[in-house]
Amino acid sequence: MAQQSIGFIGAGNMATSLAGGMVAKGIRPARIWMSDPSRDRLEEVSQLHRVHVTNENRDVAGRVDVLVLAVKPQMMQAVCEDLRDLIADRQPLVISIAAGVTVANLRSWLGETPIVRCMPNTPSLVQAGATGLYAAEGVSDEQKTMAKEILGSVGLTFWFAQEKELDAVTAVSGSGPAYFFLLMESLIEAAKAQGLDPATARQMVLQTAWGAAQLAVASEAGPDVLRQQVTSPGGTTAAALNVFEEAGFREQVQAAVAAARERSEELAG
Ligand SMILES: NC(=O)c1ccc[n+]([C@@H]2O[C@H](COP(=O)([O-])OP(=O)(O)OC[C@H]3O[C@@H](n4cnc5c(N)ncnc54)[C@H](OP(=O)(O)O)[C@@H]3O)[C@@H](O)[C@H]2O)c1
What we know:
Blueprint: E1 6-9, H1 13-24, E2 32-35, H2 39-49, E3 52-54, H3 57-61, E4 66-69, H4 76-90, E5 93-96, H5 103-110, E6 115-119, E7 129-135, H6 141-152, E8 155-159, H7 165-174, H8 176-193, H9 198-218, H10 223-229, H11 236-246, H12 249-268
Helix pairs in contact: 1-6, 4-5, 7-12, 8-9
The chain binds NADP nicotinamide-adenine-dinucleotide phosphate.
């Protein structure tokens, strides 16, 4: 991606994180363009990352090799239709990060151009994301490498051969952070109920979650083995895990993920 220019339509949380990640990975800010209706936001991004900024989406779409669509899904149709003639002319690689917006939707609004659809997640905001990517027909290997470099600047990337697989990705890694947040919230409440002061409860729970994730990532053993290693028969952890198992925790996780997937399919239409 040595010389390609990259543009972002929408300079919100996700686009700003991606631009920051790319600059941190050595991409020259002068090759990055961003547009957004908010002058304050653009000023902030330009101060932070030294990228080019403009209020005009067409200024960006008219000059870049890779165009990242980073507006909310409900804005996508209007944004794309406004750029349709420029896209037809220039045929940039279009990368959409909008949840639930399909390649068919994008094609109908933009016309024919190479399209990569992605499903990032919120930990991308702290460079710890997990992103599923799908390349529609007509995307070259070089363009796939560019998409992987852009999304890879804020975390791990995973390619999927079928667009439908992004519904499962949405249910696992897209919504996944919320499942862990729910467990953190519940554990903080339980810690307070056991008499720990709120500030200590919060810090201890977050550090435990962070530590457990770090350990799981660093370890060659799977989470099942790590769980067994902290569970002595008849001990305290076993007492707690029995309560989870008896309440059907695993079945509930299966049902929750299935429900998220179904909802993702419904939203994609
Ligand atoms: N955040 C995540 O972790 C995450 C995860 C997965 C997928 N996504 C997807 O990423 C996309 C962006 O999410 P986000 O969290 O970064 O949202 P966000 O912070 O709201 O960013 C969207 C930006 O686009 C701007 N915008 C609105 N209308 C525009 C237009 N016509 N032209 C150009 N810019 C316009 C918004 O400005 P205003 O605020 O003034 O409207 C805002 O600054 C969404 O489609 C979302 O589904 C995000």
